[in-house]
């Protein structure tokens, strides 16, 4: 049975995910945490008439070969869930995690605002605003 999380008329602000772990010899660093504001894995999410702001993805970990990916979806990360409804939500000033340092290549910075991966149902975003969000470097 999959459940639904409903968030209405809320301010989700000032949250930070953890950093990615450092890799061993000839490895890639770990990824920074996902979804500092809200993280949903499985189930459904309804987010309405709310503000998601000032959340920060954790940095990617050091990799002796390649640095880890910075934390993505610092506002909301919706991973492998069923249905997603975002309505009347402002995503503002969220910052993706910095990519980790690497012995050969640094990792990419994390994306911003809202991250959706492998949704199995309807994804609907309406009457929402994305402003001043910054991707990690």
Report the order of strands and helices.
EEEEEEEEEEE
Shape: elongated
Q: For the largest beta sheet, what order do the strands appear in spatially?
A: 1-4-7-10
* Residue share in helix: under 10%
Strand count, sense and barrel status of the largest sheet are: 4 strands, parallel
Number of helices: 0
Q: What fraction of residues sit in β-strands?
A: 25-35%
Distance between the first and last residues' Cα: 39 Å
Low-confidence stretches: none
Give the helix/strand class: mainly beta
Q: Mean of the pLDDT scores?
A: 95
DSSP strand tally: 11
Gyration radius, in Å: 15 Å
Which features characterize this protein?
four-stranded parallel beta sheet
Structure notes:
The protein has strands spanning 4-8, 11-13, 38-41, 44-48, 51-53, 76-79, 84-87, 90-92, 114-117, 123-126, 129-131. The protein has 137 residues and is mostly beta strands. The chain has a domain at 37-53 and 72-128. The chain has a four-stranded parallel beta sheet with strand order 1-4-7-10, with no helix packed on it. The protein is elongated and about 45 Å long. The termini are far apart. The model has no long low-confidence stretch (mean pLDDT 95).
């Amino acid at each position: 049975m999959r459940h639904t999380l409903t968030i209405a008329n809320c301010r989700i602000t000032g949250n930070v995910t953890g950093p990615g772990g450092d890799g061993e010899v000839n490895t890639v660093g770990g990824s920074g945490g996902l979804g500092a504001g809200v993280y949903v894995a499985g189930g459904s999410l309804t987010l309405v008439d709310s503000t998601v702001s000032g959340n920060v993805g954790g940095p990617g970990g050091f990799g002796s070969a390649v640095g880890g990916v910075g934390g993505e979806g610092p506002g909301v990360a919706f991973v492998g869930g069923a249905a997603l409804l975002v309505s009347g939500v402002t995503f503002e000033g969220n910052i993706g995690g910095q990519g980790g340092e690497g012995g050969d290549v640094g990792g990419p910075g994390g994306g911003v605002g809202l991250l959706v991966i492998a949704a199995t149902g309807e994804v609907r975003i309406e009457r929402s605003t994305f402003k001043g969000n910054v991707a990690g470097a």
